[in-house]
Amino acid sequence: MHTLLADYLLQHLQETCGGTLPTRVFNCLRDAILEGVLVPNTRLPASRDLANELNVSRNTVLNAYEKLRAEGYIQAHTGRGTWVSETLPDHYIEVGSTPISISTAKIEPNFTLSVRAIGLLEHAAASPYQWGAFVPGVPDVTEFPHVEFNRIKSRLSRQPEISNLIYSNAGGCIELRQALADYLKIARSVNCETDQIIITEGIHQAVDLISRALCDLNDEVWIENPGYWGAKNILRINGLSITPIPVDAEGIIPKEKPQNTPRLIFVTPSHQYPLGSHLSLSRRRKLLDIAKKYNSWIIEDDYDSEFRFSGQPYPSLQGLEENTPVIYIGTFSKTIYPALRIGYMVVPKQLVHPLRTISAELYRGGHLLTQQALAEFIVEGHYAAHIRRMRLLYAKRHKYLIELIHRYLGEEFLHEYNHDAGLHLVLKLPEHANDVEICRLALSRSINVRPLSQYYSGTHTPIQQGLLLGFACVQEQDMTFTFSILRQCLIENGVHSNVPKINV
């Protein structure tokens, strides 16, 4: 049986004309290295094995290998074989193609992208940097009990049930939906039965499914301002009309007499993203009244509800009364880790069958073994124990970051809506500051913060300058030093405080 390299060489040897056979083998191997077929530190087959696969003499391969070694493309290590060099010859830079950075790539005018796709690219905000100080919204993935979770997965994988290896039209693994129904009733006061839960791959897929299934082109959607860019981008590419609604200390401020009635109302009532306010009871009731009056659907993104560091957790909007027009969505990205790609929806009973069917048609069901493992992880109590442990850890880091802000910047820099919850804080900046430029300078020094101004939409709401500082994945012993770098970036951009400089 041929290796992939032998198949590649046999194909290209037929296309290569001129020169002796060893030269042609050398050229094909060199091209494979230059084109990235053989990346640095790739082990090459033994000369005898490759000669047999190519049906050539061993000397032919040895000669090609020797020439490649002489020119610096490969290295031979006694007892370890032959490897593609980690550092290739200088002329590789001239011959090889230059990688294109996604962040700097420009779309050529003749690209056949849709208008909606171009609009999405103009608003793209997903960062390539997802770890370190002070990335907002990222949990400390090193603290998750991976050994326990993988033990469950390994056991289930040894003799997997057929139902977990094929497509699913049932809205996800039944065991996980049952475990979630039990958990959400207790932890979040959600009114639901197992059949009302649809498993998704996260919040983005849930919003995509809802907007496709319940909206037509140009339908109006209310979304908090400032609000989550990810939800806005999904609504935008699905052709909906986004109306930004301002928020204050009590959360979203619903319009009393809207000019256009909303089809969807997207809110983060437990911990408004990004400012951190909590939706008051009076605003919750007003939203429900508006939704009932105009036949609208409320999407409740229960963002960061698990991580409150003082007082009792706020119950869900969905569970405020019976038969609410609310679609409750959540995810395990913050409580376990983002790459798990498992989220969930609790949908009103009248929407269960259509949304489950549409979900199966659009996305097809998958990851059922992982879902079943997660169900056992929840039922056995590991999930609740992990939440309790992380709540204590994040509370310490939250408190520590607040102390740094107070001590080295001043209390006026802490946004007034910051409450004892979530995985990030908002650092309030003066009006003259440029939070985008501050973020760029900080990133050049390996500090990753997000500019608050880019979460705003429209021109009617005053845009605040600020920084989102994630603290969940930053240990206390590292926080002081990284905060000192951030403070220096503020000073260099004309943002000063009356407190002394940090000495680290």
Automatic annotation (TrEMBL):
<feature type="domain" description="HTH gntR-type">
    <location>
        <begin position="19"/>
        <end position="87"/>
    </location>
</feature>
<keyword id="KW-0663">Pyridoxal phosphate</keyword>
<dbReference type="InterPro" id="IPR015421">
    <property type="entry name" value="PyrdxlP-dep_Trfase_major"/>
</dbReference>
<dbReference type="InterPro" id="IPR036390">
    <property type="entry name" value="WH_DNA-bd_sf"/>
</dbReference>
<dbReference type="Pfam" id="PF00155">
    <property type="entry name" value="Aminotran_1_2"/>
</dbReference>
<dbReference type="InterPro" id="IPR000524">
    <property type="entry name" value="Tscrpt_reg_HTH_GntR"/>
</dbReference>
<keyword id="KW-0804">Transcription</keyword>
<comment type="similarity">
    <text>In the C-terminal section; belongs to the class-I pyridoxal-phosphate-dependent aminotransferase family.</text>
</comment>
<dbReference type="Pfam" id="PF00392">
    <property type="entry name" value="GntR"/>
</dbReference>
<dbReference type="InterPro" id="IPR051446">
    <property type="entry name" value="HTH_trans_reg/aminotransferase"/>
</dbReference>
<dbReference type="InterPro" id="IPR036388">
    <property type="entry name" value="WH-like_DNA-bd_sf"/>
</dbReference>
<keyword id="KW-0238">DNA-binding</keyword>
<dbReference type="GO" id="GO:0030170">
    <property type="term" value="F:pyridoxal phosphate binding"/>
</dbReference>
<dbReference type="GO" id="GO:0003700">
    <property type="term" value="F:DNA-binding transcription factor activity"/>
</dbReference>
<keyword id="KW-0805">Transcription regulation</keyword>
<dbReference type="GO" id="GO:0003677">
    <property type="term" value="F:DNA binding"/>
</dbReference>
<dbReference type="InterPro" id="IPR004839">
    <property type="entry name" value="Aminotransferase_I/II_large"/>
</dbReference>
<dbReference type="InterPro" id="IPR015424">
    <property type="entry name" value="PyrdxlP-dep_Trfase"/>
</dbReference>
<protein>
    <recommendedName>
        <fullName>HTH gntR-type domain-containing protein</fullName>
    </recommendedName>
</protein>
